[in-house]
Amino acid sequence: VSGERAAAVGDLEVFRGAAPIDLARVEQELRALWKQAADQVVEGGRPPVTKVSTVNLVVLAHSGEDAEEAARAAVELSARYPGRLIVVETGEGDDLITASISAHCHLGSGNRQVCSEQVNLTLRGSAANAVAQQIAPLLLPDLPRIVWVPRDPLTVPVTSDLLTLADRLIVDSHQFADAWAALDRIIAWSQVPSAAEIVDLAWIRLARWRALSAQLFDEPKARADLENLDRVEVDYLHGEEGAPEGRVEAVYYLAWLASRLGFHPAGDPVNEDGMVRSPAVDAAGRHLELVLRRRPRRGTAPGVLSRICLFARGGETRYEITRNEERNVAEIRLQVGRSCPLPSLVDLPSTGMPDLMDAALQQQDRVFRDALASAQEWRRAN
Amino acid sequence: MPDPVATINPLAEGLHREQTAEPTAVVIFGATGDLTERKLLPALYALAREMFLPARFAVVGSSRREMTDEAFRRYAHEAVTRFGRIKPEPRSWEAFAEGLSYVAGSFDDPATFEKLNGHLKRLDSERGTAGNRVFYMAVPPSVFPPLLRQLGDAKLVQRVPSPFTRVVIEKPFGHDLNSARKLNAEVQETLLEDQIYRMDHYLGKETVQNLFVFRFANSLFEPLWNHNYVDHVQITVAENLGMEGRGRFFEEAGIVRDIIQNHVLQVLSLVGMEPPGNFRANEVRDEKVKLLRAVHLMTPDEVAGKTVRAQYDAGLAGGREVPGYREEEGVVPNSQIETYAALRLEIDNWRWAGVPFYLRAGKRLAKKVTEVAVVFRPVPHLPFAEGNIRATNNALLLRIQPDEGISLRFEAKVPGQRVELQPVKMDFLYGTSFGVAPPEAYERLLLDCILGDATLFARADEVEAAWSIVNPLLDAWSSHDPPPLARYAAGSWGPEEADRLAATDGNRWRRL
Fold it and tell me: How far is the alpha carbon of A61 from chain B, nearest alpha carbon, in Å?
């Protein structure tokens, strides 16, 4: 291997091995690269490199551009979760397997460089249909195996082998061309026996809305209103044809609320003018109307949901969270009878990819599985 | 359907914190002081920025100085800019600042509290804070009791669970055992014990909390965690700074009151306690109190043989000459106050019988470091007969600050034809394994208080049990015939007498 210090940008330093290398020699070449990196650091008088392994992160991408973009995000993520990053680029064509290696180090506390290693694989032709078999020997033992599909998973081979090899599969239903197809596929994956835990970044994006909704009912008095909800409205943003929209998030929100409160579909939904009204009932026979409403996205307005409103006690009490698109904050209003305090403002930031992935790596969420099961019921009803 | 009026909010399950905070108004008394500026306002903003605070939230600053709401917001912005882990970001600052307001007045004037009461009621209606209050006493300890009485007289604190009233008080909790008991009694005249949150910021440190996790979420070490395998334990809280303008305060305190009675004994209780059945506040604190009560209380005759007190002289720190303690501003020239103390404690219970616990804390030591070292017994027989081979005791080193982490020291064979042993260390470093910056201690503790979780706050009996441990030595040191005050050079690792204390058991302090 002719390992060399390739670049140093900010607190990130990159060591690159020669390419291509034989897939069977990846471990050996990585060891040599680490030794050379350590020697070069000593010679250069830079802080010592410390290789840290906390995770196997496999990025599965289709085109070279996607793979590069995803690898950049994954390298950024490795500052928080150092480990082995395997970037797999799959494609059609003649059978081909190529590999290259690199190491990247972030300046951490105690003047140490915390380093991760990266293996790039290009798989073409039949090799691309056996991703699980190609990466299995490259995974570090005893560490979580995360597979991240940053773009539309329908363009890469997410096989049942891969689903059972991984501990966690991270996808983003925004990246699917069709929102309902996304939901169908995620539900199907979650039902593969011994499959990885499925994490949808769309669900992670909802966390702030869920937290704000939960906070509305933290007061014991308000909590009693959960038994007296009549109607829930969720407005989501819809852009130009093909652009990401918030429909999956909106469905997730309603499915989450229904699963937490024990409601199930109770009849056919009514679809009119961009609005879907679905009747629901719980085990005690209480009725609830769930309303999904599509709103046009104005320009580059951020976010996916624009408003949530929960009505209780025949509409006498109203809990409302509205995104103020100009200020990108949420306005929270509680109206009880005629009393209506001033709205509270809370920050409602758009979550960047590193933070989304951070949450996705930590998520251990039975609640998502419940919401997914509930979403499946609503999907059938729709 | 889950019971909607049950304690657990069904919508909160699976969220970042399952128990989300209820609407709350936090009132800071001493709003223009150092603690508020450096710690409280930055911590509250960080909690808001990281979305831990409820939407219906307000912060009311209160102190004698006249200030408008707008001026308090500017003051808070500057404080967060200068001292915050998370700096103000325009959009989230706007949302946070909207909940900031200020009430000026003297704390011995009932009119101040009438005004505050009206202000809080207005916030309840305008911001929906629902009558829930956290009063933070960022004021000198002597002000707590009269301030609490004013709050009680103005009906601002009530002994009811809902809406809640919680009061945070900062250490020191008393000056000795008697004053701690008196303070507890005075505070409990107005409040129930579960409304009182005694803040020792050490317990908010991630690495201190990790002691719980390390001990009670790993099966590897707990079987060894007793007198059968542990030879001794060392707890060190070393500071390299001197008085930094706190000389007058330190003259009233000394290192035992300032560090050992609270921080060091808190760490001791976490290292030595039995596993609690759960992580609820009273179960955890019950176990801590049991451990503290099991510490052998020194008799006056024992103090000289089991403790060392010392004071620093001039020396070198950080490559520059620094004055001795008695030359520091605010310190009397013949001061007998200790800037260093070393204690040898014994714990009279089944687990720890016969295991010495060495505690040391000092100012102007060689470096700033807080560490717990659990040193294991030597092997009963070393089968390597060649030469004069000795094995160093295994040790588990829990570094609390800086370079937070855990190391295990064990023996390894030096490569070669002969059997030669050398101690090596296996290191886990927080900074390298977790790239996420941990929250500040005040963030964690403020949030816990708003959530009503008192696990990381000291209970009255815990404070009194800790004072019981140090009271005998404080009495002996202030008696007519005190043991000598040893000397050490600034920038050293303390006095020789401390080395001799450890050497009485054949041990030595770790060189850190």
Answer: 25
